[in-house]
């Protein structure tokens, strides 16, 4: 058996690992990958405090339609938003796969984003991301870039712009 780089050769048959050699070169962006509908999204790990199973969410009367309510995370009250509604998708019933991603906006503000399910943490080479041109369209303002990586299209969400006007 001969092993070279990320490729292995067993009995003269080439075995390709999950990543190409070029994927390991250069800086990468570590992302928590999650799904909404049939799309894969990512948020940079540096913005995420933790991922929680969905427990009791207490409603807040008079809150914005996107706000599902608040949760208590070890003594800290965190507002939970429905990411589907923020992205103009139909709401979905919470199920066993649903998760709340706790995002740190700054030292004092955190918010929980309800998503369909969290997939994994993945390092994506920066060179795989394509920046979007800025437009006035709401949906694209919240996207940092799109990556074509390992047979998937990954939409990198910019949480700072999503919650920039929500104080």
UniProtKB/TrEMBL annotation:
PROSITE patterns: CHEW. It comes from the Bacteria. One of its GO terms (biological process) is chemotaxis. InterPro entries: CheW (IPR039315), CheW-like_dom_sf (IPR036061), CheW-lke_dom (IPR002545). Gene3D superfamilies: CheA-289, Domain 4, SH3 Domains. Residues 28-167 form the CheW-like domain. Pfam families: CheW (PF01584). One of its GO terms (cellular component) is cytosol. SMART domains: CheW. This is Chemotaxis protein CheW. It comes from Thiomicrorhabdus xiamenensis.
């Amino acid at each position: 058996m001969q092993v070279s780089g990320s490729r292995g050769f067993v009995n003269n048959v080439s075995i390709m690992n999950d990543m190409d050699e070029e994927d390991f070169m250069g800086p990468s962006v570590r992302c928590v990958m999650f799904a909404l509908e049939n799309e894969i999204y990512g948020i940079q790990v540096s913005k995420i405090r933790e991922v929680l199973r969905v427990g009791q969410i207490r409603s807040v009367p008079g809150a914005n339609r996107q706000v599902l309510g608040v949760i208590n995370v070890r003594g800290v009250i965190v507002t939970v938003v429905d990411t589907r509604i923020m992205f103009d998708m139909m709401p979905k019933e919470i199920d066993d796969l649903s998760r709340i991603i706790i995002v740190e906006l700054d030292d004092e503000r955190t918010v929980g984003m309800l998503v369909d399910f969290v997939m994994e943490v993945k390092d994506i080479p920066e060179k795989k991301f394509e920046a979007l041109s800025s437009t006035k369209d709401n949906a694209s303002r919240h996207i940092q870039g799109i990556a074509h990586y390992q047979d998937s299209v990954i939409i990198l969400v910019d949480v700072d712009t999503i919650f920039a006007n929500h104080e």
